[in-house]
Specification:
70% of the residues lie in helices and 0% in strands. The chain is mainly α. It is elongated, with a radius of gyration of 30 Å.
Length: 172
């Protein structure tokens, strides 16, 4: 590795001939896909070349290289699998249609009206917690009350909202 760190290509080729077959076999056993295994092995050997100046012999070279290959394989397995465009099916337009948009706006207005009809402290607790994403402790400080009181306000507020909106809540 010291020779590789100095840019010695012959030393790099020697390391490659010695270790690539074993690393390729390891990658194939982990990934089960020869194309991915070849890519991972090639990337590992690229890292040997690029990291050689920083490599420190705390472990044997083969141990270090094996760890690199295993990590690259695990990273590759975590990634979502690519799907061919043809297999993905028809592209769906994510925008709402006119009917869906009207329903959504009507539902939003009903929820806004129900929240507006809540008692002031319940409405404030709901708005700060769910609208602004504040913690119960932060809401308690703003309302000059206890966390327990905020939790009670939220429970009562949600109960009141559920009652006010029960005609439009899906029961499926």
């Amino acid at each position: 590795m010291a020779r590789v760190a100095r840019g010695d290509e012959a030393a790099y080729r020697l390391l490659s001939r010695r270790h690539v077959p074993a690393m390729l076999g390891l990658a194939r056993r982990i990934l089960g896909n020869s194309t991915d295994a070849e890519d991972v092995t090639q990337e590992a050997m690229l890292r040997v070349w690029t990291h050689a100046p920083r490599w420190q012999p705390l472990a044997q070279f083969r141990t270090w290289l094996t760890r690199v290959v295993v990590n690259l394989c695990l990273d590759r397995k975590r990634r979502a699998a690519w799907v061919a465009l043809e297999a993905a099916g028809e592209i769906v337009d994510p925008t709402l249609g006119a009917g869906e948009l009207a329903e959504s706006q009507e539902r939003d207005q009903m929820v806004a009206n129900a929240i507006a009809a809540l008692p002031a402290r319940q409405r404030t607790a709901i708005a700060l917690t769910y609208g602004d994403g504040m913690s119960n402790a932060q809401v308690a400080e703003i309302l000059d009350t206890t966390v327990s009181a905020v939790e009670t306000l939220l429970v009562r507020g949600k109960q009141n909202l559920r009652r006010a909106l029960e005609s439009v809540i899906d029961k499926d």
